[in-house]
From TrEMBL, chain A:
PROSITE patterns noted in UniProt: FAD_FR (PS51384)
Binding site for [2Fe-2S] cluster: 223, 228, 231, 239
Coiled-coil regions listed: none
Source organism per UniProt: Nitrosopumilus oxyclinae
Molecular function, one GO term: flavin adenine dinucleotide binding
UniProt keyword list: 2Fe-2S, Iron, Iron-sulfur, Metal-binding
Name of the protein in question: Dihydroorotate dehydrogenase electron transfer subunit
Automatic annotation (TrEMBL), chain B:
Annotated family: Belongs to the dihydroorotate dehydrogenase family. Type 1 subfamily.
InterPro entries: Aldolase_TIM, DHO_dehydrogenase, DHOD_1B, Dihydroorotate_DH_1, Dihydroorotate_DH_1_2, Dihydroorotate_DH_cat, Dihydroorotate_DH_CS, Dihydroorotate_DH_I
Chief location bin: cytoplasm
Protein name (record): Dihydroorotate dehydrogenase
Pfam families assigned to the protein according to its UniProt record, in alphabetical order: DHO_dh
Dihydroorotate dehydrogenase catalytic domain mapped to chain residues: 5-285
Cofactor: FMN
Residue positions of the active site: 128
Keywords: Cytoplasm, Flavoprotein, FMN, Oxidoreductase, Pyrimidine biosynthesis
Organism listed in the record: Nitrosopumilus oxyclinae
């Protein structure tokens, strides 16, 4: 029978890469996940623990994909602790993807929001001039800096790191840098994924300058296919209409940047 | 005369016969507006309880290899009072409020919460197959069904619908008890208790182990139930279970339903499914020379 993408397929973890003390990349072989579009995600079942939405990370080896997870609550810690040889279930890919534009591109990622940005980097053309802006709390939490430089080795590019405490790279919030960059330089497109406040400010800054901007939203997800309703943002369903939305669309959404819903579906302030 | 797809399910008048089933996409008024604009005749809310429920941990939904879905979301919902506040501003969308509880007082209390809302009907969930003390456990207890339906009928003039499913007792007894207590219509059916086990990890996939099967695999069962109810009782029926095309909808009309609901088809075909089905029904009516849905209801029982 043909693979049912909405049914968990079991894969075995082949390699675990420690990115920071709290972030790991788990590599596995699969027929489907290595070829997904930038921004797409999977529902990842950690048997006995939970099932979580995870952006699909690239792997340097062909036929392999990965998840990069930060240990946070019990579920993500469960995934973080899956050893080499451990099995997880994956369904998807779900969601739409970033529109890959050409020219001068700005990619902004915070924390594990960098994952879809890495896949996006694997889609840029050698002629694109790419700036990657990564935000982290402190030096310990910086990851994918080397990977970004490597993926962009044939492009005109710069990778800028900012840390909240100034322990590495530029000091301050990544959004301050975004505002500075978009006011000084012309960009053809801006892409952002990370904490929602960061995306909100980035979208506002780029949209105000009439620069094409897209953000990938995170919401509570249960089904991933547009049935359960838990991921709604205004009239949009993050899993099915997104997760990638245009800045113009987002600037009209009453909930983006202001509210999200808890597990019972109650609207809460950010 | 130009055919019309408007329909009446007893006192409930709808411009279009295909509704959103309970539990699907149901927590935001903005989403309801969108579904109404996409051609849904009405939207049924998630089943609401007296207090908010988080539901079960994931995995809560996945699709079966051969088609259809199994879910045990665990009736996660923001609670009747939070929900009522959200839909208060609504004027345009026909909203059917689904309620779930374990004693008559739960239903009475929740109906009070909706006093400032425009509610087209209440649907009483007597059939959720995967949450203890509510749903099927209520539907399987004739004394409780009697008490709940009577209480609801006394508490409001808004029409009340009983949603039934396949539990441990004969669902036709639930139907007949509800009719005796003055229920205005029946929705048939809810999901069917089911499970799936992953052979690699040798575990049930759902965190709750058991869930409810929905989608195309249950359509023949739901159709049989609608035919059975309409053959035995004179009560307006809403068909639900595995409907995803206009042919499915027509089959349910022919079996005796005056309206239909769908849920899983949204996972398979997204929100355009409402307009597709509406168009298909209209074309069929033109081709067969019907001017109202009513003319088709129960036709398969001729012979
Ligand atoms: C599209 C998408 C892509 C993501 N990609 C990544 C990624 O690449 N790497 C990464 O580390 N994290 C990613 N996340 C976040 C991740 O899914 C978890 O939300 C996060 O790891 C927090 O988990 P926890 O351990 O705190 O959950 P717990 O506190 O243990 O909570 C468990 C329950 O909450 C649910 N839950 C909690 N927060 C969320 C949330 N934001 N979205 C959905 N369900 C939630 C889980 O489904 C689960 O049922 C992504 C989220 C989304 C929506
Ligand atoms: C994810 C999900 C959640 C559901 N939640 C509810 C609910 O809260 N109340 C209810 O009466 N039925 C609920 N149902 C059952 C549906 O309303 C419907 O009866 C069933 O899915 C069969 O229709 P379908 O095959 O068109 O999906 C749910 C179904 C699904 C798939
Ligand atoms: S996760 Fe269920 S609708 Fe989006």
């Amino acid at each position: 029978m043909q693979r049912n993408l909405n049914h968990p397929t079991i894969v075995t973890i082949e390699k675990v890469i420690d990115e920071t003390p709290t972030v790991r990349t788990l590599v596995f072989s699969d027929d489907v996940m290595p070829t997904v579009l930038p921004g797409q995600f999977a529902m990842v079942w950690i048997p006995g623990v939970n099932e979580l939405p995870m952006s699909v990370m690239i792997s340097k080896e062909s036929g392999k994909a990965a998840f990069t997870v930060r240990k946070h609550g019990p579920s993500s810690t469960g995934l973080f602790n899956v050893p080499v040889g451990g099995q997880i279930g994956i369904r998807g890919p779900y969601g739409n993807s970033f529109d890959v534009k050409e020219g001068k591109l700005l990619l902004v990622g915070g924390g594990t929001g960098l994952v879809p940005m890495m896949r996006l980097l694997s889609f840029v053309k050698p002629t694109d001039d790419v700036t990657v802006l990564m935000g982290a709390k402190s030096k310990d939490e910086v990851f994918f800096e080397d990977l970004s430089n490597e993926l962009l080795k044939n492009n005109p590019h710069q990778v800028i790191v900012s840390t909240d405490d100034g322990s590495y790279g530029e000091k301050g919030f990544v959004t301050d840098l975004v505002e500075k960059l978009v006011s000084e330089t012309h960009f053809d497109a801006v892409y952002v994924c990370g904490p929602e406040i960061m995306m909100y400010k980035t979208v506002q800054a780029a949209h105000a300058k009439q620069i094409f901007v897209q953000a990938s939203l995170e919401r509570m997800m249960k089904c991933g296919v547009g049935i359960c309703g838990s991921c709604c943002v205004g009239e949009d369903l993050a899993c099915r209409d997104g997760t990638v939305f245009d800045g113009g669309h987002l600037s009209k959404n009453k909930e983006f940047g202001h509210f999200h819903r808890n597990k019972a579906g109650i609207l809460e302030n950010y | 005369m130009k055919p019309s797809i408007a329909t009446s399910i007893g006192q409930i008048q709808l411009d279009k016969p295909v509704m959103l089933a309970s539990g699907i996409l149901g927590i935001s008024l903005d989403v309801f507006n969108r579904l109404y604009a996409s051609g849904a005749g009405a939207v049924v809310t998630k089943s609401l309880s007296t207090v908010s429920w988080e539901g079960y941990p994931n995995p809560t939904i996945f699709s079966v290899k051969g088609g259809g879905w199994i879910n045990a979301v665990g009736l996660s919902n923001p609670g009747a009072s939070n929900f009522a506040k959200m839909i208060e501003p609504n004027q345009d969308v026909p909203i059917i409020v689904s309620l779930v509880g374990s004693v008559p007082e739960d239903f009475e209390m929740m109906i009070k919460e909706f006093k400032n809302c425009k509610v087209k009907a209440y649907e009483l969930n007597l059939s959720c197959p995967h949450v203890a003390k509510v749903g099927l456990e209520v539907g399987d207890d004739p004394g409780l069904v009697k008490a709940i339906v009577s209480t609801v009928k006394n508490a409001t003039d808004v029409p009340a619908i009983a949603k039934v499913g396949l539990g441990t007792s004969n669902y036709l007894n639930t139907v007949s008890t509800a009719i005796d207590c003055g229920i205005d219509a029946i929705t048939a059916i809810n999901t069917v208790r089911a499970m799936a086990i992953d052979v690699e990890t040798q575990r049930p996939i759902l965190s709750n182990k058991f869930g409810g099967l929905s989608g195309t695999p249950i359509k023949p069962i739901a159709l049989r139930c609608v035919y059975e109810i309409s053959s035995k009782y004179d009560i307006p029926i809403i068909g639900c279970g595995g409907i995803s095309t206009w042919e499915d909808a027509i089959e349910f009309f022919l079996a005796g339903a005056s309206g239909v609901q769908l849920g899983s088809a949204i996972g398979d075909n997204w929100v355009g499914v409402f307009d597709d089905i509406n168009k298909g029904i209209l074309d069929y009516m033109k081709r067969k020379n019907y001017s109202t849905i009513k003319e088709m209801v129960g036709l398969a029982k001729k012979s």
